[in-house]
Design a protein that fits this description.
about 700 residues; alpha+beta; 17 helices
Length: about 700
């Protein structure tokens, strides 16, 4: 008999792995319908102003060019909720890189040549792209979801002034960019009054709904397919201009149209992590008990869409203090619209908080692990709700044991290997449990096979595999007898893959559908199933989105060992270790991959990734992978991820929490703290590049 009990939690291999390594898995740009045309966008070359004239004569004269769409002739769209999708609708230019034209041609080469031939004249206006904490236009945004705005508890300023020990420090996280391996792409085909779009997206249902609103079409007339997606990290979490442009082009030309965004254009049109300026003040008693906690953050947003990098949100969760204040401010500038990037808010916010905790530990003369354990709590400080589960102290202690923390000499600059100073650091991490309503269906066939259907998206996390494991576990059948159909908006509607909510939300609906199917099958014992089989459906609306009496979060601890070359200033990470408490792990193989991937991205945040806004030009200077450096295999010689399997009954039927983002949250702080331990230098601006190390920190 098959071992069905271990289907959930077993290290099952990714089902689509063979397809991906053999090149048979098809992505959005790899669908080429007969008669397909190719599109290439024209970005604005001014930072603010308006298009005063467009001359497409030279472009249209080129062989193969079919059409040039501008705000003068493009299809009209309904006003979207997301203003970044209102492309080619008027003459305004809200930032450099905003699309002002689209060339459609028979070949990609002709489209690109045509785009270069389009002549655009602008009425340029003065611009402002510089983020300053004291900018007079910075404001506190409306706190619509409880994650931003200003929150106070007690009298934080007075408590800080009277604290036995305190630190008052400022940190800066630069703009960061999503660079998925697969660029943003869409292939759109308007045929027989039906729009079919293959889109590189983290949520086909969301894209379908947006296109239906923009083109004033019934949802049934649109199908969005996101069968395989080559990474997203948040940048594909909501519809982006490319899918709207491709859909406009197929409607205007009557031909299928393929649009793949050039990587150099991504920084301006698919979102980025807003730069954040932090001021953190921590006050404590001599024994390390926090008495005051103040975290103030200023971030930029664009003038066309408010997006808040809610970096103060995790501070309200992590550590108890009778007196606390968090203030989130934003500044609207003439910059591209920031958006989601892996662990938005938590990644930059926890970098600042956990770096400040390390500075406080040094000021107190208390071990950094012990300081965090002393300030652990089982009740969320801001809401007073009990945590559904919180094993942060266990993560810290187990991580310290595995890492060999007790062997560490706490004195900075205490270990040297020639010109290389070696140090180690620690940081804690948290990320909220987010659950959204989802639908799913489950079907049993006479041949003993089963099919589950849900419009989940696999962006690399192994959704097909894990959802099949959920189904096999409920049905008590072999895992290889279950097929998972995902990635198509014609399937039962589901939330996007983002916010670490995908598997928990989709899995809940799959679990419920399979539970109902199992009941039907139990009632038919001894009877042959009909040729069409039997099925069941589920919709978790009203359950998954119901208020909880508990504060639900994942927690973790990161440990890092670094070597800092005192001659070159280069920082090399020698070891990374993460320990996580993230509910019940549904697949140990794919989970470890998720944790390690996020930790690697956190290493990039700490050491290599960073962008610069050119004040005069009004654009990001690091616009491709030659200038924006993501870590490679050689940057991570030793990396481990482990977990504490939690039994938390207050989550979903699987007892799972999201894991896609918790791994990045504390990594940068752990590395920065290790650099301080190695050198005695405190560099408070990321990334920790050689020039900053050699300059002596700040």
């Amino acid at each position: 008999m098959p071992d069905t009990v271990s289907a959930l939690g077993a290290p099952a291999e990714r089902r689509e792995g063979p397809q991906k390594v053999t090149g048979t898995a098809r992505y959005a740009a790899e669908h080429t319908p007969e008669g397909c045309a190719y599109a290439w966008p024209v970005p604005a070359t001014v930072a603010r102003g308006a298009v005063s004239a467009v001359d497409a004569t030279a472009a249209l004269a080129l062989p193969g060019v079919v059409e040039v769409l501008t705000h003068l002739n493009a299809p009209r769209l309904e006003k979207p909720d997301d203003a970044t999708l209102a492309v080619l609708q008027d003459a305004r230019v809200p930032h450099r890189g905003w699309y002002v034209a689209l060339v459609v041609a028979d070949t990609l080469e002709a489209a690109r040549e045509g785009a270069a031939a389009v002549q655009v004249t602008y009425a340029e206006e003065p611009h402002d792209v510089t983020l300053k904490a004291d900018h007079p236009d910075a404001y506190v945004p409306e706190d619509s979801d409880g994650t931003s705005g200003e929150h106070t508890r007690g009298d934080a300023d007075s408590a800080f002034a009277s604290a036995a020990v305190g630190v008052d420090v400022a940190y800066r996280v630069p703009p960061l960019h999503n660079h998925p391996m697969e660029p943003h792409a869409a292939t759109a085909h308007w045929q027989d009054d039906h729009l079919t779009v293959h889109d590189s997206s983290q949520g086909a249902t969301t894209v379908r709904d947006a296109l239906a609103g923009l083109f004033a079409l019934p949802k049934e007339q649109i199908t969005v397919v996101s069968e395989h997606v080559g990474g997203g990290f948040g940048s594909k979490g909501t519809p982006r201009p490319h899918v709207v442009l491709a859909s406009m082009a197929t409607r205007a030309t009557g031909r299928p149209v393929k649009l793949v965004l050039p990587r150099r254009q991504l920084a301006a049109v698919v979102g980025h992590r807003s730069p954040t300026l932090h001021r953190v003040r921590l006050g404590a008693d001599a024994d390390g008990t926090l008495t005051s906690l103040i975290h103030e953050v200023t971030a930029h947003t664009s003038r066309i869409k408010e997006f808040v990098e809610t970096a103060t949100a995790p501070t309200r969760v992590m550590y108890p203090s009778p007196h606390a204040r968090t203030t989130q401010r934003v500044l609207a500038l003439d910059v591209p619209s920031p958006s989601w990037m892996r662990a938005p808010g938590e990644a930059p916010g926890m970098y600042a908080l956990e770096s400040a905790m390390d500075e406080l530990a040094m000021a107190l003369g208390i071990d950094p692990v012990e300081l965090r354990v002393r300030n652990d709590t089982q009740t969320e400080p801001d809401s007073s709700k009990p945590f559904s589960s919180r094993h942060l102290a266990e993560c810290l202690r187990e991580g310290a044991r595995r890492f060999g923390w007790s062997e560490r000499d706490p004195r900075p600059r205490s270990r040297a290997e020639g010109p290389v100073l070696v140090g180690s650091g620690v940081a804690a991490a948290t990320y909220p449990v987010v659950l959204s309503p989802s639908r799913a269906s489950a079907h049993a066939y006479p041949d003993g096979s089963f099919v589950i259907r849900v419009n989940a998206t696999d962006i690399g996390q192994g959704a097909r595999t894990v959802l099949a494991q959920v189904a096999a576990d409920v049905l008590g059948v072999p895992l290889d007898s279950v097929r998972a159909d995902i990635g198509n908006s014609d399937l039962p509607a589901a939330p996007l893959a983002g916010g670490s909510c995908g598997t928990g939300s989709w899995g809940w609906a799959v679990h419920e559908a399979c539970t109902r199917l199992a009941a039907r099958l139990a009632g038919q014992q001894g009877q042959q199933l009909p040729p069409e089989g039997v099925g069941a459906t589920a919709d978790t609306a009203g359950e998954a989105d119901a208020d909880s009496d508990y504060s639900r979060h994942s927690f973790g601890a990161h440990f890092a060992e670094v070597g800092v070359d005192t001659v070159s200033g280069e920082v090399r990470v020698r070891r990374l270790l993460g320990i996580y408490a993230a509910g019940h792990i549904l697949n140990s193989r794919t989970a470890r991959s998720q944790f390690i991937g996020a930790m690697t991205m956190g290493l990039g945040m700490a050491l290599t990734e960073g962008s610069t806004m050119d004040a005069a030009f009004g654009d990001f200077t690091e616009a491709d992978l030659a200038a924006y450096h993501v870590p490679a295999h050689a940057d991570v010689p030793a990396i481990e991820a482990h977990w504490i399997d939690e039994d938390d009954p207050h989550l979903n039927p699987m007892g799972s929490k999201g894991i896609g983002e918790i791994g990045i949250v504390g990594t940068a702080a752990a590395i920065g703290n290790a650099v301080h331990h190695a050198t005695g230098l405190r560099v408070r601006e990321l990334p920790l590049t050689p020039d900053r190390i050699l300059a002596g920190g700040n």
